[in-house]
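Hi R.,

Here's the chain you asked about this morning:
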Amino acid sequence: MKKITGILAVLFILFFFSTLLSAETKQFVCIVKPVLDKDVVDSIVRIGQQFNRKEIEEYAKGGWGSGFIYIAGNGANYVITNRHVVAMAQKAELEFINEDGTSTVIKDCPVLYTDDEFDLAVLGIADNKKPFKTGLSISNSGVKDGDEVWAAGFPGLLGKPSWQLSKGNVSNNKVVVPEIANTDKEWFIQHTASIDPGNSGGPLLVKGKNDVYSVVGINTWTVSGRNNVFFSIPASSISEVIKNTEKTLAKDEKSKKDDLINTAKSFANSLSREKSSKNDFRFISYSYGVSNGAADLEFVDQAYDEKEIQPLVDKLEKGVFIEFWRHVKWERIKILLKKQMSKNSLQFKNLIGEPVKDETGMTARTLFLINKNEYIVTWKWEDGHWRVYDTDFDSRLEQRKTNYENAQCCANASNTCLTGGIIGITLMVLLGFLAL
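And here is the predicted structure, written out as tokens:
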């Protein structure tokens, strides 16, 4: 009887602490629903229709991921999640599920920062409000193989987000997977705590001193073809991104202007290289990436041979739909300028006026040169970075090509042109050659 009583007591304690962990964690973990601008939605729907892919059109209707509350030293409320959860969105809707089954929704939460190196993003609360006094803490110590961990989040159940707290162990505390890493320095925690679609951005937790649970990672990836293989971005990367977010939020207008000049120079240098690097797509804004996506892909496909197009195919096969179109847009720009840059590289010349801020955000224009030909690039301050929002590469190059073709056509059509006409043709042909 004593033995049975002892077993029941142990079971009760395990259940009690499991329930306590679930309740304590659940109040700080939320459903993150990105809110896409209409032009982005229209672009995605158009891509889906052009490729006859219903799943792409469905993506435009909006999905969700998970995230958790983190309280900064100054009391600011942040929500930490994956970049791919909120990519293409400037704002998100947060939903917290209460213990009685009701929900609390916070709308218009701005995407404050997305990181180019790690698949991480930081959101704020609408109107800088601070409804939370406490949140989940980020662990400052690593995990070891075999450590017990919990994965919290809202994976899908019959098409809807459903709370899930799963338990597992660390199976590899520092695994490098180049196929899913954004940079060479990125590594992951491999574990067996079950995660499913919708868990992305949710915390991976470990019990520390005084039975306090802290975040050791953010659940991000799983692998098909193997059981119980899940990947989380480690706490050290989360802490780094939070610091970068706070530095970005502290920037004044002058600092942002200096950032723009540095980014524009880096953009020119990257375009002038013969081969693209892994993260060159970071210059392209999400909305510009999906605009004319199908036409861009066809353009790149026709310009590249099988070997050149393979890196893009690999990215699409990885399922990174959001980032794929930014890669395509980057390659299109590179192809457009390749002939122009056969002898001279792209050079940043200057800003055109001052950055402009309105209700849609902050934009700026910059001037670039190739062989004395000028090009305008429009930038947008997006998620803590300056990104390319539009260019006139297509229109300017097409106009120069038309001028040259017209000149050739006119020259071939008549051998009896007047001197003035011949001079005009010669000037147009020279201009045409300069632009090639």
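One quick note: The two ends are 92 Å apart (CA to CA).

Cheers,
M.
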